[in-house]
């Protein structure tokens, strides 16, 4: 469980680092977009008119140059045409700048669009990571709850084991006491049995001895076995 939680935390840390990196990238893109918008604040109308008039001005320059080169002009007329050509040349250069500016503007617009797409991608990725982080947090909380539940179960099991151990110890002590009591009872029973056996044996012997005595009084004759009973009985009486 600990390994799973550590893995989730490590994954979340990686996602957070990636999110911070994307936030920095987003700020960078926003700054670039603002700079591009400022750079593209030009007069679109002027650029459009300039490009459309460039061809006419160039054509007019060629016409005037042709007049100067082919016609016989007085000095004043030639000066006027040359001056006009110079004015048109300046205008041509300005319009060429407008043309370059428009091209640059188009490129800038394309770059701006690309940056917007990149920014949109970054934002989408950030949203995705935030969603993943939410899922990871929920999973982390779930695993932590499972871990806490397992810890509580372990604590309860330890308490139960301790209770059972105490019960087992008590039962062991009780068994030892009962074994001692049983041993004492068996010993007492054995001794009582031995005493009873001797007493019973003596009673039977006394009875037989009386029977032999009665027979001897009546018949004055005894068998060897009967004589032995009478003799052993007498010996026993002397021993006592």
Identify the notable features of this structure and list them briefly.
Bfr1; Helix Hairpins; mRNA binding; mainly alpha; 4 helices; 240 residues
> Structural class, from secondary structure content?
mainly alpha
Reading off the top of the CATH hierarchy, the class of the domain at 2-146 is best stated as Mainly Alpha
**Rg calculated over all Cα atoms:** 64 Å
H/I helix tally:
4
Residue share in helix? over 70%
Q: Please report the total strand number as a whole number.
A: 0
Poorly predicted ranges (pLDDT <50, ≥5 residues)?
45-51, 235-240
Shape: rod-shaped
How would you sum up the major sheet? none
CATH fold name of the domain at 2-146, please? Helix Hairpins
The CATH architecture of the domain at 2-146 comes to Orthogonal Bundle
Note the gap between the termini.
Answer: 86 Å
Which range does the strand content fall in? under 5%
> Average pLDDT across residues?
75
Order of helices and strands: HHHH
Could you describe the 3D structure shown?
- The chain is mainly α and 240 residues long.
- It has four helices and no strands.
- It has a domain at 2-146: Orthogonal Bundle (Helix Hairpins), CATH 1.10.287.
- The chain starts with a helix and ends with a helix.
In short:
This protein is mainly alpha-helical. Helix 1 (2-39) runs antiparallel to helix 3, helix 2 (44-70) packs antiparallel against helix 3 and helix 3 (75-219) crosses helix 4 (224-239). The protein has four helices and no strands.
